[in-house]
Amino acid sequence: MERIERHTATGWWLEEAGGTEPLAPLDRDLACDVVVLGGGYTGMWTAWHLLAAEPSLRVVLLEGGVCGHGPSGRNGGFCESLWHSAAYLRERFGDSAALALMDASIDSVRAIGDWCREQEVDAWYRRGGYMSVSTAPPQDGRREATVEAAAALGVPERVAPLDEAAVRARCDSPVFRDGILIADEATVQPARLALGLRQRIVERGVRVFERSRAVSLSARPGGVVATTERGTVRARTAVLAIGPRTRAMRELSSRLTVTSSHIVLTEPVPDVIEELGWTGGEGITDARTLVHYFRTTKDGRIVFGWGGGRVACGARVNGRSEVDPGVAEMIHGHLLRMFPMLRGRRIGHAWGGPIDVSPSHIPQVGTLEGAPVHYAFGYTGNGVGPSHLVARALASLALDRRDDASRLPIVEAGPGAWVPPEPIAWLGGLAIREAFIRRERIEEDGQRPDLLTRAVCTAPAALGIHLAR
After folding, report:
1. How far is Cα 276 from Cα 171, in angstroms, rounded to an integer?
2. d(CA 308, CA 282)
3. Contacts of 73 (CB under 8 A, 6+ apart)
4. Low-confidence residues of the chain, pLDDT below 50?
5. pLDDT score of 318
6. Whole-model pTM over 0.85
7. Residues with Cβ < 8 Å from 375, sequence gap 6 or more?
8. CA 94 to mean position of chain CA atoms
9. Which of 307, 303, 382 is nearest to 338 (CA)?
10. Hey, CA dihedral for 234, 238, 244, 248, is it positive or negative?
């Protein structure tokens, strides 16, 4: 197998975007109206929405590293709505609330594109749609519930069923079968979007301090105090947007798990993309539980990722979330199964990152009991688009506004199911991950998995946990 030329913790997107110099760390005590912890999409969009609502607001953002250099700058760049969860959202929230939520998530996908144009941020935004495709007989028809949900909600045009010919007319992989198309989706260069957002919030007046991880956040009379190694920020209210690190918080640890996702990136292969007929810019996933996701880039590369990375114990990722050669080699093999015409072509880069996994597979938004601290986490690999919507809700909560954003059904909805304590969650996660890897490999070979494998794969659903999209 061809060697992966460059395997880094931060990945190619940030290299392509040109990097950035860190801003100064917090080295004194400050007071403000709202302190935001976390400099990924959620934290930065929240800061943006806060100042859009009240331009005179004093907003401080604390980031432990450099804004946009975590999962926000390393993901696959799928800017999606929540429509792939339509069936589950109907079941959980009812038709009216589910439709309002999904339409709001589409509005956010469009709003990100509008923002890029208005703010002159070249984030490679492209509305090419999203396809979910079957790549083995047991995956056939797995997205029928999404099609049926759109029809039942009176908007069948939102989700189009595709037969094998229609799928392969858009991307002619030899293993593709049937699928669905959600047209109102986009792709971006995630690091360009994150760094562009970072620059714009600074220009707008947000006081951003990098290399300033909060070591504590405590309620005080009249508000909260966030403490870093070298300073404090006293604020009326706080927004907690720390993604996978939320698992380390006692109050929220039972509401998420942490796993990892990894990507390999080809050299420019415009000839292969042309051969595939994959010229519409679609972001694509297969219909596995441990999903593959893949898309093309502006310069003719193929980004190919897998959501089957290793499970973390608590919030301890120990570097395996970013650099995991064994998983990267597995993904390269998966890439060649999907696109055998890439055999012999260079794999220029590989990287990974942690994922905050919600038991419901949808984001969780709320307020800590007894403290003016508003939180969001649990994107489960779909954060680029929904983070814009979630940040609107967080901004409304921080401003104590009761509006459409703060009344979204995901606000204070709870986790859907509870995560066991460690090490039970970690050990169980390891067993379930291995069972799904084994089951999906066997199914792709055209065979039936053994009884034990099938039984272990049913465990999450029995506990009320949704693993699949």
Report:
1. 5
2. 22
3. 10, 11, 13, 14, 17, 190, 191, 194, 195
4. none
5. 65
6. yes
7. 239, 240, 241, 246, 252, 364, 365, 366, 367, 368
8. 24
9. 303
10. positive
